[in-house]
Amino acid sequence: MLLRIRRASKTYSGIPALIDADLDLLGGEVHALMGENGAGKSTLIKILAGITAPDSAAIEIHGQTVTLSSPHSAHSHGLRFIHQELQVVRHLSASENIFLGQAYPTRFGFQVRWKQLHQQAEQVLARLGIEHIDPRRTMGHLSPGDQMLVNIAHAFVGDDLEHARALIYVMDEPTAALSEAETAQLFRVIGRLRERGSAVLYVSHRMDEIFTIADRVTVMRDGRVIDTLPISTITPPELIEKMTGRDLQHIYPARTEAPSDQVRLDARGLFTAVVHGATFTVRVGEVVGVAGLNGSGRTELLRAVMGLDRLTAGELWLDAKRLKGHSPSTAWLEGIAYVPEERRSQGLVLSRSVGDNLTLPQLASLSIGGWMLAHGRERQTSQNMGAQVRLKARSPAQTVRELSGGNQQKVVFGRALVQPPRLLLLDEPTRGVDVGAKVDLYQLIREISGHGTGILLVSSDLPELIGMTDRILIMRGGQLAETVSSEGLTSERLLALCYGNMDHVGSKDR
Amino acid sequence: MSAQKIANPQPPFAWGRFLRTFGTLIGFFLIVLFFASQRPATFMSVRNLLNITQQVSILGVVAFVMTVVMVLNDFDLSVGTMASLSGIVIGVLLQAEQPLVVVIIAALVVGMLGGLLNGLLVAYIGITPFVATLATLTIFGGLAFSVSGGRTIFGAVFPDALTEFANGGIPLGTINEQLVRLPHLTIIALVVLVLVWFVLEQTVFGRRLYTIGGSMEAARLAGVRVRWLRLLAFVITGVGAALAGAMLTGQLATANPTLGDGLMLNAIAAVFLGMTMSQEGEPHVLGTLVGVLLIGVLANGFTQLGVDTYIQRILTGTIIIASVTLSSISRRNR
User: Hey, are the CB atoms on B4 and A57 less than 8 Å from each other?
Assistant: First the structure.
C-alpha cells in the first residue's frame, strides 16, 4: 500500500469540512475521488499537499508514518500535484515553465544554456508522448489545452520515471481545459504511471472519464467518505446517487413543450478573424448546441453573436431586427445574455459581492433614472435571482470569491436572467460544476427555454449536448460544417462528426 | 502514527481581520493622541484643527479625485504638474486682465483637456497608465514653463477677492477671544469629497468603475463600456487637479510652474493608506480622507514639535510603510 489515511478531520471556524475520512491508495491503481463541491475532496487534497494542517489525522506513506507539514515535505514524501487551475507563467517559454523551480543547465554557473534547456524540455514532453508542442514557444501563445499539458509535464520533471520509487500523483480535474484528443493523451500518460506502480488519485466531475480510467472509486459526501469500491461494481446512476444522496433518474430533464416555429436569431454568413462562415437560426424556445474540437471556433461563434469579436462579414438578425453597431453593451440591451467560458476571469468580478455581480449587466434598468443606485431594489432582485437559481450564499453581500464553483456559476446564470433574455449564450456552462449543481442548471435551462428564450449551448460534454439540445451545429476549422438533430444521436457519432470525414474514411476501409 | 491535534472548539476573535480594517484608523488616533499629549495647549485647539483642515484641503482634492482612477486600478501621475499648469493659466490670464470667473473656468477646461488626453492614451490607445501619465506629467510641466516663460507670477496680478476668499472662511464664533473660521478651502474640499463619494458609492457609474477595477474583462463581457468609463474617470481626475491648482494659486497669490508638483506622491500615498482600510483592498474615498488627514496631522504636529522638515519627510514615509506593511501582513495571514 502506497498511502494510507485514517480518521482525517478538519474544521473551519466551527464548520466541519472533513470528518474521520479514511483513504487507501494502492500501487498501480487509478483511484477516483468523487463528490459534489463541498463534499470535502479539496480539504483532503490540501491536507495531502501540506497546505492545510488537519485537526487530526494519521497518514502513512510506504508504511511509514509521516507528517505533511508543508508543500515541500509533501513533495519529498513522493506526492505530486496537478491542479485544475493553470499555474503557468504566460510570458515565459514552455521550456522555462516545465523547469520552473528547477536549476536550469548553465555554463560557468550563470549563463543559461538555452539549447540544452529546450532539448531537456523536449525529452520530458516526449516521455509523456507529447510531440506537437515546441518548447521554445511562449506559454501565452499555446492553446489552453497545450498549456495544461505543459503544466502536467512540470509535475513530472525531476523524477526519473523509469527507475524511481513509486510516486503518488494527485490530479484535480486535470481535463477541465483539455479537448478530447488531449484528454486521451493524458490518459495514456496516466496508464504509464500505473504500469510503473505509481498511484493516481484522480478528481473529476466527468462520469465518462471516471469509468474510462479509474480502477477504484471513493465517494465523499458532506465531509465523510461514503464508500470505496471497484469501479466495475457500480454504474454511473448508482455512483451519482451515492454522491448526491438522492436518486437522479434523469440528469437531463425532458423538455415539456416543443420549440415554436418563430425564428429568434438569424445569423447569416458570419465571418470574424476565427469564424469562417456560419449561417444558422435559433427559434423561440429552442436549445441549439454547438459542438466541435478545441479551436474549432465554437467559443468564437458565441463571441461573434455577443458582439465581442468584430464581424468582417455577415448579418445578425434578432426577432427580425438587424443588429447594427453590435457590442456587448448593446447586446445586453437587446436582450442577449451571455455566460462566458471562464467563469472566474470572464464571468465574475471575484472581489465584488454576489449582489453586485448579479445586477451588473442590468444595473442601469434597476437604478433610479438610469444613473443612481437603488440599493433596496438591487437587494430585492439579488434575493429573487438567488432563489430562482437555488444559490447557496450567506447573503447578497457575500464576496463571490468565497463561493464554491457551482455556486459561482449559479451567480453567472442568475445574472443572465435578471431580465428574461430573448437569446441566451452558454459557453461550457457546467464545466467544473458538481453533479448536484449541474442538475439544477439543467432544470434552469429547461425553464428558461420553456419561457421562449432561444439558447445557444457550447459544450465539450457530449452527453450533455445531446441530452439538452434540439439541434447541434458542428464547427470544424472555424466553419459551420453541418447541423444535425440531437434526436437519437450517440456520443460516438457526435465526436466523429466533430473530427469530420472520420466515419467517411472508416466506411471506405471496411 | 502522528496525530496532529489542534483543539479548536470555537473560532477565536479574528484579530487579523480587525487589524486589517481598523489598523490605519487606530494608528491615526494614536498619532493624534501623541501630538495632543505633547502640545496639549496648541495641537487640540479648535483653531489648530481647523487650520489642519485648511492645510490638507488642496492635497485632499487631488487625493479624492485620484481615488476615482485608482478604483479602476489605474494611476494618474500627471496631477501635480496639471495643478501647476492650472495655476500658470490663471496667472497668465489674470495678467491679461480677464475677469476672474472666466479665468477659473479656463483653468478647469485646461484640466478637462489634460484628463481627456490621459484618458485617450490609456483607454483608447492602450498605453499603460504609468507610462501614459508619466509622459503627460512631463508635457504639462513643460507647458507650464513655456506658457509662463519660466517666471513666477505674483503680487498685484491676483485680485484681492481671490486671495481673501482662498485665505478666509465662514466665522464660527469666538473661542478665548479669538475669531474661529471654517476655511473656504476646507469647504471646497468637503464639497469635492461629498461629490466623489456620491459618484463612486451611489451611482451606476461608480459601481461600474469598481467592477472594471475588479476585472476589466468580466466588466466588458457584462456590457460595461470600459473604454468610455475609463476616459471619463481620467477627465474627472484632470478637472480635480486643475481645481487644486486654482486653490493653491489663490491661497499663495502666486503662480509658479512647479508649485503643485509635490501633490502627486502624497495623493497616491493617501489613497494607499485608505486602501489598507477596506476588506478587498479597494480604494474608497472615505479611506482616502483618513489617509489625507493622517498626512496632514503628521505635518502639522511635527512642525509644532519643531521637527526639521527633512526629518518630517523621512518620518512620514516610514509611517506610510508601517501602515501598509501591517495591512499586507494581516492580509497574507488569512
Answer: yes
- Residue contact B218–A57, C-beta within 8 A: no
**pLDDT tier for residue A127 given thresholds of 50, 70 and 90:** confident
Closest CA to A393 of B112, B202, A383, B188: A383
Picking from A433, A479, A349, the residue whose alpha carbon sits closest to that of residue A173 is A433
CA distance A488 to A483: 14
What is the gyration radius of the CA atoms in chain B, in angstroms?
Answer: 22
Are B4 and A345 in contact (CB < 8 Å)? Answer: no
Q: Return the CA Rg of chain A.
A: 24
Preferred mutation among A303, A351, A418 to probe B, highest tally of B CBs within 10 A: A351
Q: Which three cell numbers stand for residue A391?
A: 444559490
Please check whether residue A414 touches B, CB under 8 A.
no
Contact B273, B291 (CB under 8 A): yes
CB B240 within 8 A of CB B84: no
The pTM assigned to this predicted structure is 0.80
Neighbours of A73 (CB within 10 A): 13
| Set of chain A residues whose Cβ sits within 8 Å of the Cβ of B222 | 328, 332, 360-361, 415
| Cβ neighbours of B11 in A, within 8 Å | 13-14
How does pLDDT run across A11-47, given as a tens digit for each residue?
876 678 899 999 999 999 999 998 876 788 888 999 9
Cα–Cα distance list, A370 to A322, A327, B218, B329 (Å): 25, 19, 21, 41
Answer whether A69's CB lies under 8 Å from A158's CB. no
Q: For residue A424, give the C-alpha cell.
A: 441566451
Dihedral sign computed on CA atoms, order A79, A83, A89, A94: positive
DSSP conformational letter for A141: G
Percent of chain A exceeding pLDDT 70 equals 94
**Sign of the four-CA dihedral A72, A74, A75, A77:** positive
Which helix (H) or strand (E) segment holds residue A18: the answer is strand A15-25
- Contact residues, chain B to chain A, C-beta under 8 Å: 1-6, 8, 10-11, 202-208, 210-211, 214-215, 217-225, 279-280, 282
- Interface membership of A66 toward B (CB under 8 Å): yes
Does the distance separating the beta carbons of A345 and B217 come in below 8 Å? yes
- From A491, A388, A391, A385, select the one nearest A436 (Cα to Cα): A391
Alpha carbons within 13 A on the beta-carbon side of A242: 19
Grid coordinates representing A41? 475532496
- Asked if the ipTM is above 0.85, the reply is yes
Selection from B105, B64, B110 nearest residue B86 by Cα: B110
Residue B334: pLDDT band by 50, 70, 90 thresholds? very low
- In A84-113, which positions are buried (b, 16+ CB within 10 angstroms) versus exposed (e)? beeebeeeebbbbbbbeeeeeeeeeeeeee
Residues of chain A in contact with residue B15, where contact means CB-CB under 8 angstroms, are none
Beta strands in chain B (DSSP E): 153-154, 169-175, 178-183, 254-255
Q: Which residue in B has a C-alpha nearest to residue A306's C-alpha?
A: B221
* Residues A10, A17 contacting (CB under 8 angstroms): yes
- Given this model, what pLDDT does residue B333 score? 47
Q: What are the distances in angstroms from CA A431 to CA A146, A210, A412?
A: 18, 15, 13
Chain A neighbors of B10, CB-CB under 8 A: 14
Instruction: Quote the crossing angle between the two packed helices B285-304 and B184-202, to the nearest 10°.
Output: 150
Query: What distance in Å separates the CA atoms of residue B35 and residue B304, rounded to the nearest whole number?
Result: 9
Q: DSSP letters along B9-50, please?
A: SSPPP-HHHHHHHHHHHHHHHHHHHHHHHHSTTTTTSHHHHH
Q: What share of chain B is helix, strand, coil (3-state, %, to 5)?
A: 75, 5, 20
